[in-house]
Amino acid sequence: MGFTGYCSEEAVDSDDLQSLSGSESEEDEDGNPIPKRRKKGLRVRPWIRSVDLKNPKFRLGLAFPNSAQLKEAVRECAIRNQLGLWFEKNSKKKIEVNCQWDCPFRLYASTSKGEGDTLIIKTLNKKHTCSPVETSHFLTYRRIAQEVAEDLMVDENWSRKGIHNHIEKKYKLDVGVQTITRAKRAAKRMNEGHYIDQYNMLAAYRKELLRSNPGSTIDIKTQMDGPVRRFHRMYICFAACKEGWMRGCRPIVCLDGCHVKGQHPGQLLTAVGIDANNGMFPVAYALCEVENQETWTWFLDYLKCDLRMERDSSYVFMTDKQKGLGNAIANLFPNAEHRHCVRHLYNNFKSKHPGEGLKQLVWNAARSSTQVWYNKHMDALRELDEDAWLWFQDKSPAQWSRAFFTDESKCDILLNNMCESFNSAILPARDKPILTMLEKIRMDMMVRNANRRVACEKWKDLVGPRIKKIIDKIGQRATQYRAHRSGEFIFQIIGTGEGGSKHAVDLGLHTCTCKRWQLSGIPCVHAICAIRFKKQEAALYCDDYLMPSSYMEAYNPIIYPIAGEDDWELVDYPIAPPPYKQQAGRPKMKRHKEPGEKENHPPPPAPKEGKLSKAGIKMSCKICGQQGHNKLGCPITKAKKAAAGEGTSSGATPNKRQRNEVNRAAAPKGSTNVKDQVIKSRKTWKKIKQTVESTSGPNVGASTSQSNQQPPTQSSQNPAAGSAQWKASEPMQPSQASSEYAGF
After folding, report:
1. Residues 327 and 422 in one domain
2. Least packed by Cβ within 10 Å: which of 47, 231, 282, 623?
3. DSSP helix/strand/coil, 685
């Protein structure tokens, strides 16, 4: 009994095979099923993409849902087996595949009547006689991007070279560097999403954040550009950050801004608090177009409402010298204390008044805890440099010296390091599209708060590790003082050295005449001396802002997680990206460092014994005043030596290199014509000389021979005179050569 079609090698029950048109049976009037008549022809097996694509193998009767999946299988087979396949016919109804090297391989698939777009392999010759190929046009950057997208999501720092080695090792095919670069860029775009689509999802993202974190303040400000609604600004402050700052942080807010790098750059404004362990506590952040007084006023207006800053005199703001920030604080918080970062202040001062002596006096004045010592350091600065002292006259000392700080905040910081630390922590997210960037910042804040709660439970001391370290460092100097009791909690502290200082300490009121205890909330060296006299722990006398209970109050509120993008509720509020004009050149990914910042120079070599190394120091020339060389390597010095013929030993004839340098220095500046280039050739010069001698006749030869047989003269006996004579006759060579060339 014969049959037509392809018999599969796999053991499959014939009852399980179904026709592609469906196996639903019809029913009669009584509801009994009527078996459907099976069509004659090939027994087909469906292509299951999720299983078969990992190792594609073709067989007769293999049915593909559409032409796209069949072409995908052919490409994958060619890549994995190093085959040079190509499409002879490529349409939705018919696909024919041949091999590039004229081998007998052939695959033909087409649709059948009544099967729709399903393609069935009807002709197949699997035999290959060609050798494996080294490159494949099917291994495109899109295919590589799909391969590495998942791994790149886990390791964002996977280098281009690492991806290149991975692909070549896996598929044994050569891939270009540009293809790998484009593939990595496409894989990142696949993971992060297109930046235009992310702007359209901002409204849904805001709604999801408010659903998962009720009580948060999230506002999106847009502008109408004709009929298009464009993104303008966005403010985010989670409810956990509000409650944590008001419950457990000191009443000080550090403000700063940083650049956002990406398709549509802008500015990210941040507000950071300080927790009980002197760590940063992010409060709020906003994305805006630029950094000016208008944007800072808009940001601080939201912050004032969220943190309920009603009595502004009890709050402290620490800032750099941002544009318009001082005016914004003065308008919204007229009675608040405003401090400036001393490092930025000194960098501006250093540009006009450098010097180590001035630097020490400025920092000593900033660290002074009393006005008496501040005046002493400023008087010393005035004696050293009057102009440097005048530079500080228009700057209020209440903004940069501890002597004029209020003691309500229990924080004596002079630097804006908290905001800079936060900006550095979110640096990997600042070059991502807007939604990816905001989600990375939220994830970092959520995980950080959770880790802080776990870490606080493991504290073994009465205060945080950083506060404990400060107390131990201060306690090392307590042996230089002696405590004398005046009352139960009042002590007179006297230094042990000559002219030792005297201070009054009140352990009950937590005060000392040096004012360091009142400013920082941490016992000063005089207070620790009195505490040790009473045989007690110094950590017990720290302010309540520094206790573990305050630390837990700050981090107990939770930033709750959110659902995935597929589960967000759709919001019909399309937002277009802000207008942006791309600047010429490559985008700058590194900021300009300030004069006081250290640059990462390579390690200097080991210095010689008794001599300091000059590695990393720029030389300056005393002759021309430029940097990068000294007077020996100055071009002016070299030109003078070349013109005077110096640099050779006395009595020695200049060598060829020295003569060429003299010729170049003496030759007129300008473009060299073709004739001069021909004459400079040695072979051409010989030809010219021979031609001139032959045309001039025997007289020239006689004169030449006579000149060669002349007796030695004074110039020949004296090498120095000969050198001078050569120098005098040397500039005449170009004109002589020109006349000889004219004869030639």
Report:
1. yes
2. 623
3. helix
In a domain? residue 132? no
Q: Would you list the DSSP string of 568-602?
A: SPP-----BPPP--PPSSSPP-SPPPPTTSPP-PP
> Can you tell me the distance from the alpha carbon of 490 to that of 488, in angstroms, rounded to the nearest whole number?
6
Q: Which of 531, 562, 580 is the last residue of a domain?
A: 580
Summarize pLDDT for 674-703 with one digit per residue, the tens.
445 545 556 666 767 777 676 655 544 444
- pLDDT (0 to 100) of residue 662: 56
CA distance 413 to 111: 77
DSSP codes, 423-459: HHHTGGGTTS-HHHHHHHHHHHHHHHHHHHHHHHTT-
Say whether both 556 and 569 belong to one domain. yes
Contacts of 564-568 with CB under 8 Å at 24 or more apart are 565/201, 568/201, 568/204, 568/205, 568/207, 568/208
Are residue 428 and residue 332 in the same domain, yes or no?
yes
What is the sign, positive or negative, of the torsion defined by CA atoms of 687, 692, 695, 699? negative
Query: What are the tokens at 400?
Result: 């940069």
Lowest mean pLDDT among 137-151, 386-400, 641-655: 641-655
pTM, whole model, 2 decimals?
A: 0.69
Same domain for 436 and 514, yes or no, is no
Q: In what order do the strands lie in the sheet with 481-485?
A: 481-485, 490-495, 502-506, 511-512
The C-alpha torsion from 576 through 577 and 583 to 586, rounded to 10°, is: -120
**Same-domain status, 100 and 219:** no
How many domains are there within the chain?
Answer: 5
Check: CB of residue 62 under 8 Å from CB of residue 44: yes
Rounded Cα distance, 396 and 330, in Å: 14
Q: What separation in angstroms does the CA of 370 have from each of 313, 376, 493, 510, 594?
A: 21, 10, 17, 17, 30
Q: How far apart are CA 31 and CA 26, in angstroms?
A: 9
Given a cut of 50, whether residue 722 has pLDDT beyond it is no
Q: What is the pLDDT of residues 463-519, one digit of tens each?
A: 999 999 999 999 999 999 999 999 999 999 999 876 678 999 999 999 999 999 999
SS3 321: coil
The DSSP code sequence of 362-398 is HHHHHH-SSHHHHHHHHHHHHHH-HHHHHHTTTS-GG
Q: What angle do CA 279, 284, 288 make, to 5 degrees?
A: 130
Q: Are residues 112 and 220 in the same domain?
A: no
One domain, residues 85 and 164: no
Question: Is the predicted pLDDT of residue 314 greater than 50, yes or no?
Answer: yes
- How many Å apart are CA 675 and CA 670, to the nearest integer? 14
Judge contact between 54 and 36, C-beta under 8 A: no
> What angle in degrees, to the nearest 10, is found between the helix axes of 682-696 and 698-708?
110
DSSP string, 96-138: EEEETT--S-EEEEEE-TTSTT-EEEEEEE----SPPPS--TT
Q: Is residue 629 part of a domain?
A: no
Domain match, 436 and 304 both: yes
- The mean per-residue pLDDT over the stretch 187-206 comes to 86
Taking the CA of residue 487 as centre, how many other CA atoms within 13 Å lie in the half-sphere pointing to its CB? 8
Q: Is residue 63 part of a domain?
A: yes
State how beta strands 316-319 and 252-260 pair. parallel
Domain final residue, candidates 494, 522, 541: 541
pLDDT(544) > 80: yes
Full strand arrangement of the beta sheet holding 217-225: 217-225, 228-237, 280-288, 266-274, 252-260, 316-319, 337-340
Residue 84 sits in which domain range? 45-125
> Alpha-carbon distance 640 to 627, whole Å?
20
What is the mean predicted confidence (pLDDT) over 23-40?
48
* Per-residue DSSP letter, 353: S
Give the pLDDT confidence score for residue 197 in this predicted structure: 85
Tally Cβ neighbours within 10 Å of residue 507.
22
Q: Is residue 421 a part of any domain in this protein?
A: yes
